[in-house]
């Protein structure tokens, strides 16, 4: 009798294989679409299991039950997925359990159906889930198929209860296992042959979100709902499931890696076009899921109870970062009095704060901005452009910021032209990234080259836009130049700056193409490049840096010594032909301001046309230390110097500053005047106070999964502690041998102008004039100095001054031992 029953179930399993094959054979209109196929396969396998279980004696009162785990449990049965089953029993006799299990498993094995099985009592199932994280995650999806429902319910409810109560202890292991899986399997969005199941942004990540939701530490769709630009996590999940379903059907077996040779057929089956259209859909879906997982893990970390001594800490305070922007619980959030509906620049201020601090933007903040923030007027206010430059100048931190803005629809609102390159796959295998990510990567690399050029702001803007013409047909350099002109006008660039950015986009391939394909010894080659650039030395300098950033951001091996030497040789030859840069010069003295010199120390503060920006004018008898003291007083008042002009005449100095408060409004000019007089009298130790202010900012604590607050990614006073690019000090000889012009190219920091001026004063040199320009997070500060009072030979004094200047500007952080670029 047992043999007859076994042969019957074996025949049934063979019928199961035939039925599955029939479902997969359809052609044309008879061919089941991927979602319908999964539903049909789920019903087919459930029918076989319930029928077979009844034949072998698994009934509601038998003390046995069959639980489905994995795809069958989630009703996501794929053509050649393994069956993942658990046979539960109520502590039955071992011989009986073995007999029932054999009759259930052997027919599936004989029919060559993949099977992952286990036999457990309720207690054993709970013990396994408690000790094995992978098993616990699988059992969270468990669903009763047949048999004793109470037995199944006891396991399912027990697993969920156990998961919720133990999530605090298991969360570190869960986070570590997730990142280890990403390291092994890579990122679906940027892999030629992605792992749809285990890769970052894949199906395992959706299951992770479900597990965190079951633990009640985050919702099932953190960060992105169905109304998001990409349709949210559910839509992204469905699309990847559809691709994996067709991958199984095309391959004729279970497979997780999408092979390049199968992509066109799968794309056609899903009616997506070709393999490039398929890659774009996958990239969009994976990045949507990946962003949601980042938000989910972060939300869960903040939601979990603290352990050990950290339980005694006070509730995290709200630390101001910018106007309407604060840090809270390790995230950048809106201040309580922020009014997004009436503050168009708030989006960029939030982004800039996240970029310089390395802190993530709160998902709820991004949702609120997406729902209520108005459009920026055209042209953009200068403050919004400055904040964009801060983001682009923040290096690797810009990648996560722009990705978050893009996934939530805010980046597309700021730059509508981005839609054509969003998730656009590269046509050349040498490219690692999608086109939009390549643009951001190029800007990140360019931020490390900003001290090599006189206009770091134009470098990062050109890097961001250099391939913006792709995806539209035609020569992307020509098309991109027109689009860059459109974007530049909207950003509010000066006409001369706009012309440079447009030329960078139009000619971003000129140097590499010429250097690697033409004879550099032929004078006509150099003449062609110089004529194309109109003899503009500044444009040549920018294109040189852009060529390097573009190559590095393309992929491994694209930039090397051979290419660098060829382009460097070409640029050197061109420099011998084009006219050099004009040296920095002092601004003329305003007679109206100089007329107020008889009033003693004068400090005026007036608003500019731009919000959150003010003009500060200091007129006083010229004396050594005036510039450093005036700049130090502004820094202590949390006023960031955006630009400055320092001039003097008839024994009086006129210092004009354009400043922006870190948050709130500026102090009264009378208070600034009082503090300046105190500092000039030696009653206010400015440098000591500035150091103390930085130390206080470094000591701020941040809970959650964030790095130590004192690490290189944290910021002080809204500016990073470490630079993206190495600082440079340039010297130019003046007409008088005792005079020189010093240009400092570096990353900004609170009170930097005060520190730089103090260096000159310490070495006994007089600052005759100064022109200060802050562009994003970079500064280009030029000082006209008199070296005659230094008491040492000029060459020696220059060396000492340069070493002292380098000691006060931010230097790049030393690379971490485990720092690996993805």
TrEMBL record:
Segments forming domain HD: 435-536
EC numbers: 2.7.7.59, 3.1.4.-
Gene Ontology molecular function: [protein-PII] uridylyltransferase activity
Activation/inhibition comment: Uridylyltransferase (UTase) activity is inhibited by glutamine, while glutamine activates uridylyl-removing (UR) activity.
InterPro entries cross-referenced by the UniProt entry: ACT-like_dom_sf, ACT_dom, HD/PDEase_dom, HD_domain, NT_sf, PII_UdlTrfase/GS_AdlTrfase, UTase/UR
Transmembrane intervals: none
UniProt key word Transferase: yes
Catalytic activity: [protein-PII]-uridylyl-L-tyrosine + H2O = [protein-PII]-L-tyrosine + UMP + H(+); [protein-PII]-L-tyrosine + UTP = [protein-PII]-uridylyl-L-tyrosine + diphosphate
Chain spans, region Uridylyltransferase: 1-320
Keyword line: Hydrolase, Magnesium, Multifunctional enzyme, Nucleotidyltransferase, Repeat, Transferase
A Pfam family of this chain: GlnD_UR_UTase
Cofactor(s) in the UniProt record: Mg(2+)
Family listed: Belongs to the GlnD family.
Function: Modifies, by uridylylation and deuridylylation, the PII regulatory proteins (GlnB and homologs), in response to the nitrogen status of the cell that GlnD senses through the glutamine level. Under low glutamine levels, catalyzes the conversion of the PII proteins and UTP to PII-UMP and PPi, while under higher glutamine levels, GlnD hydrolyzes PII-UMP to PII and UMP (deuridylylation). Thus, controls uridylylation state and activity of the PII proteins, and plays an important role in the regulation of nitrogen metabolism.
Domain notes: Has four distinct domains: an N-terminal nucleotidyltransferase (NT) domain responsible for UTase activity, a central HD domain that encodes UR activity, and two C-terminal ACT domains that seem to have a role in glutamine sensing.
UniProt protein name: Bifunctional uridylyltransferase/uridylyl-removing enzyme
Organism, scientific name: Rhodococcoides kroppenstedtii
């Amino acid at each position: 009798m047992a043999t007859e029953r076994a042969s019957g179930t074996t025949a049934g399993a063979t019928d199961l294989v035939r039925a599955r094959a029939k479902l997969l054979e359809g052609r044309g209109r008879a061919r089941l679409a991927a979602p319908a196929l999964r539903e049909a396969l789920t019903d087919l396998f459930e029918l076989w299991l319930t029928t077979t279980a009844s034949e072998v004696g698994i009934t509601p009162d038998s003390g046995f039950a069959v639980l489905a785990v994995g795809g069958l449990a989630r009703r996501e049965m794929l053509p050649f997925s393994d069956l993942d089953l658990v046979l539960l029993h109520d502590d039955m006799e071992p011989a009986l359990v073995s007999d029932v299990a054999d009759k259930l498993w052997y027919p599936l094995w004989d029919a060559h159906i993949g099977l992952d099985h286990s036999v457990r009592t309720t207690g054993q199932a709970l013990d396994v889930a408690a000790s094995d994280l992978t098993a616990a995650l699988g059992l969270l999806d468990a669903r009763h198929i047949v048999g004793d429902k109470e037995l199944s319910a006891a396991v399912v409810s027990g697993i969920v209860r156990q998961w919720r109560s133990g999530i605090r202890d298991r969360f570190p292991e869960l986070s570590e296992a997730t990142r280890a899986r990403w390291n092994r399997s890579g990122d679906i969005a940027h892999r030629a042959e992605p792992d749809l199941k285990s890769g970052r942004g894949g199906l395992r990540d959706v299951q992770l979100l479900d597990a965190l939701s079951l633990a009640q530490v985050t919702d099932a769709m953190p960060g992105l709902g169905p109304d998001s630009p990409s349709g949210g996590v559910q839509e992204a999940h469905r699309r990847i499931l559809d691709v994996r379903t067709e991958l199984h059907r095309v391959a004729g077996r279970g497979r997780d890696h999408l092979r390049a040779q199968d992509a066109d057929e799968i794309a056609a089956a899903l009616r997506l076009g070709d393999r490039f259209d398929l890659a774009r859909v996958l990239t969009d879906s994976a990045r949507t899921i990946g962003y949601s997982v980042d938000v989910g893990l972060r939300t869960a970390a903040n939601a979990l109870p603290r352990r050990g001594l950290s339980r005694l800490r006070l509730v995290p305070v709200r630390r101001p970062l910018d106007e309407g922007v604060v840090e809270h619980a390790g995230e950048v959030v809106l201040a309580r009095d922020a009014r997004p509906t009436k503050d168009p620049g708030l989006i960029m201020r939030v982004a800039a704060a996240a970029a310089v601090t390395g802190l993530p933007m709160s998902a709820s903040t991004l949702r609120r901005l997406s729902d209520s923030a108005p459009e920026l007027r055209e042209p953009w206010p200068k403050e919004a452009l400055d904040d964009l430059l801060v983001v682009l100048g923040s290096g690797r931190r810009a990648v996560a910021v722009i990705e978050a803005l893009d996934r939530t629809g805010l980046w597309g609102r700021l730059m509508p032209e981005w839609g054509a390159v969003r998730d656009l796959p590269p046509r050349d295998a040498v490219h690692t990234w999608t086109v939009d990510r390549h643009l951001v990567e190029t800007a990140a690399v360019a931020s490390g080259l900003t001290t090599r050029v006189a206009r770091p702001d134009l470098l990062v803007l050109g890097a961001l836009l250099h391939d913006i013409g792709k995806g539209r047909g035609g020569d992307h350099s020509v098309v991109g130049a027109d689009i860059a002109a459109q974007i530049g006008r909207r950003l509010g660039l000066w006409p001369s700056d706009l012309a440079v950015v447009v030329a960078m986009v139009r000619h971003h391939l000129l140097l590499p193409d010429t250097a690697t394909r033409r004879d550099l010894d032929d004078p006509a080659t150099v003449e062609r490049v110089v004529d194309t650039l109109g003899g503009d030395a500044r444009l040549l300098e920018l294109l040189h840096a852009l060529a390097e950033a573009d190559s590095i951001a393309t992929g491994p091996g694209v930039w090397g010594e051979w290419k660098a030497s060829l382009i460097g040789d070409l640029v050197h030859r061109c420099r011998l032909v084009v006219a050099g840069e004009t040296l920095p010069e002092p601004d003329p003295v305003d007679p109206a301001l100089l007329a107020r010199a008889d009033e003693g120390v004068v400090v005026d503060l007036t608003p500019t046309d731009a919000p959150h920006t003010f003009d500060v004018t200091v007129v006083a008898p010229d004396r050594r230390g005036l510039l450093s003291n005036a700049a130090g007083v502004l820094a202590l008042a949390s006023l960031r110097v955006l630009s400055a002009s320092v001039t003097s005449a008839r024994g009086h100095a006129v210092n004009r500053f354009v400043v922006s408060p870190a948050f709130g409004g500026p102090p009264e000019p009378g208070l600034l005047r009082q503090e300046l007089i105190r500092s000039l009298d030696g009653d206010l130790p400015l440098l000591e106070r500035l150091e103390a202010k930085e130390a206080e900012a470094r000591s701020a604590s941040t809970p959650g999964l964030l790095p130590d607050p004192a690490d290189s990614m944290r910021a002080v006073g809204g500016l990073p502690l470490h630079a993206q690019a190495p600082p440079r000090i340039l010297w130019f000889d003046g007409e008088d041998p005792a005079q020189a012009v010093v240009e400092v190219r570096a990353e900004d920091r609170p009170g930097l102008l005060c520190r730089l001026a103090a260096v000159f004063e310490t070495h006994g040199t007089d600052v005759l004039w100064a022109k200060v320009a802050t562009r994003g997070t970079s500064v280009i500060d030029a000082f006209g100095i008199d070296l005659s009072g230094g008491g040492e030979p000029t060459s020696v004094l220059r060396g000492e001054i340069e070493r002292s200047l380098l000691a006060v500007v931010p230097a790049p952080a030393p690379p971490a031992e485990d720092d690996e670029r993805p």
